[in-house]
Design a protein that fits this description.
The radius of gyration is 30 Å and the shape is elongated. It has 499 residues and is an alpha+beta fold. 39% of the residues lie in helices and 20% in strands. Helix 3 runs antiparallel to helix 4, helix 6 packs across helix 7 and helix 8 (347-358) crosses helix 9. It has 3 domains: 11-310, no CATH class; 320-433, no CATH class; 441-498, Arc Repressor Mutant, subunit A.
Length: 499
């Protein structure tokens, strides 16, 4: 594979050094209640209202595992081709911080829920929905754990002296997905995280709302001499809550690592944070050892047993995954890989497209109109596909009218704009606006003769061999009919009359 360009790093240095990247992704599960108690996981409630003795870690309380959280974690494991273990268990991850009321986090350590998976990515620059290089990224493990509370260090009158803690998030169910160090550039890391987010959304495991903290990412990055087998010393970059920040932080770290090594220095193993304002990573804490934490088995929770029957039941209920859907769209509907990537970007959009086709619209026409007309207007209106004022069946009715020649494509776009604005069906708008296609041969010939008679100079140019002038005549007739004339009939009539 050719060396991938990395912003800020000279190409000759990338010929000598190879980046090695692994990602640790935390995704909040779509459950109504927390992982070990019945408190709500609803985002945006007043601080410290969704709490109870269990998630606050008060003495005498016992955690009880949320079955739905376990089911969603198994679903994610299957979607990522992991081996779901028959037996796994929780541990206490001990460290002290004010956002951790128990003084430990309940997580999985030695016996995770699932191991040995993979995720196929495609990338061309950064976007996985574009055709380009395909690569399989290994997944080391997937495990369940509880989230910590949220520490707030700014935004209060006394933030220069005090920090505040909102315990609503404490105990929210998470899965942690740890990749193998198989990524070799920030572009690959971007594609991996984007593809992973898409899979988690398709399977309805997580809403992956990064603004609300439902998807968070830590990156481990190092560089080594090309051809070397041994990894270089890694640094960890924490809490990268956007795809753009992830890419920029990795670019900065790779450039920094290579600069240190080229100057004869050594990389220190440490944890760093991305400083958005300064555009750089900054030290958070050193890591003399590989593990910062001390674990021991959680004595209040039994081992987790996943029966073959339950796993099979979950697998049967799995939706079609994005990669399979893209391939099916290309095969069944004859659309391009690019169009399939756009239409399968979200499960809701893919369902909308197929509903339009099932309602009778040609697949290629539906694909074009959804991308050029519907998605553009949804973006301008700040709406999601689920909020579209034009239902799939209504769009299909419009496209059938265009395909049958009852209205022109140009008129169809005007009708669609009105449909989007008002929610009215196409037939009602066509009747009210009078935009039916003019296909009367006599009427078309009359209009063509008028345009020819009014433009003798251009007639002379055309008959002298300037065929480019023909478009002028077509445009004049179309304009005279406000876009309602049958284009093919106009072309045929003008060619006949101009001789």
């Amino acid at each position: 594979m050719a060396t991938q360009q990395i912003r800020g790093v000279a190409p000759d240095l990338l010929e000598r050094y190879e980046p090695v990247i692994g990602l640790e992704v935390h995704a909040q599960l779509k459950t109504a209640s927390k992982i070990f108690c019945a408190c709500s996981t609803r985002f945006g409630d007043p601080p410290n209202t969704n709490v109870c003795p269990v998630c606050l870690g008060l003495p005498g309380t016992l955690p009880v595992l949320n079955r739905r959280a376990l089911e969603l974690a198994i679903r994610a494991s299957l979607a990522l081709h992991c081996n779901v273990q028959e037996s796994s268990r929780f541990a206490r991850k001990n460290y002290f911080y004010p956002d951790l009321p128990k003084g430990y986090q309940i997580s999985m350590y030695e016996l995770p829920l699932a191991t040995g998976g993979w995720l196929e990515i495609e990338f061309n620059g950064a976007r996985p929905d574009k055709t380009g290089t395909s690569k399989r990224i290994g997944i080391t493990r997937l495990h369940l754990e509880e989230d910590a509370a949220k520490a707030m260090h700014e935004g209060f009158p006394d933030s220069d002296r005090n920090s505040y803690i909102d315990y609503n998030r404490c105990g929210v169910p998470l899965i942690e997905i740890v990749s193998e160090p198989d990524l070799r550039s920030p572009a690959e890391a971007y594609a991996y995280l984007t593809t992973l987010k898409q899979v988690l959304e398709y399977t309805e495991v997580s809403d992956c709302n990064m603004e609300e903290g439902s998807l968070r990412c830590d990156a481990n990055v190092s560089v080594r001499r090309r051809g070397a087998e041994k990894f270089g010393t890694k640094t960890e970059v924490k809490n990268l809550n956007s795809f753009r920040y992830l890419q920029h932080a990795l670019e900065y770290e790779i450039e920094r690592h290579i600069g240190v090594l080229e100057s004869g220095g050594q990389i220190e193993q440490e944890t760093r944070l991305w400083n958005l304002g300064a555009g750089r990573t900054e030290p958070m804490r050193s890591k003399e050892y590989a593990h910062d934490y001390r674990y021991f088995p959680e004595p209040d929770l039994l081992p987790v047993r996943v029966s073959a029957a339950w796993k099979a039941e979950i697998e049967r209920a799995m939706p079609e995954l994005p990669g399979a859907k893209r391939a099916r769209f290309i095969h069944d509907y004859g659309i391009t890989p690019y169009d399939a990537g756009v239409l399968a970007d979200t499960r809701a959009l893919a369902d909308y497209f197929e509903a339009v086709v099932r309602a009778g619209a040609p697949a290629k026409t539906a694909a074009n109109w959804i991308q050029t007309e519907l998605l553009r207007r949804l973006k301008d209106a700040g709406k999601e596909i689920s909020e579209s004022p034009v239902a799939p069946a209504a769009l299909a009715d419009l496209l059938k009218l265009v395909e049958s020649g009852q209205i022109t494509a140009a008129s169809g776009k005007k009708v669609f704009a009105k449909m989007f604005e008002t929610g009215q069906p196409a037939q009602a708008i066509i009747a009210a606006e009078g935009v039916s296609q003019i296909s009367d041969a006599g009427e078309i010939e009359r209009l063509c003769r008028e345009v020819i008679a009014a433009n003798p100079d251009n007639v002379a140019k055309y008959r002298a061999g300037n065929e480019g002038v023909f478009k002028f005549f077509v445009g004049q007739v179309i304009r005279a009919t406000r876009g309602q004339a049958n284009p093919q009939l106009v072309n045929d009539t003008l060619k006949r009359l101009l001789g």
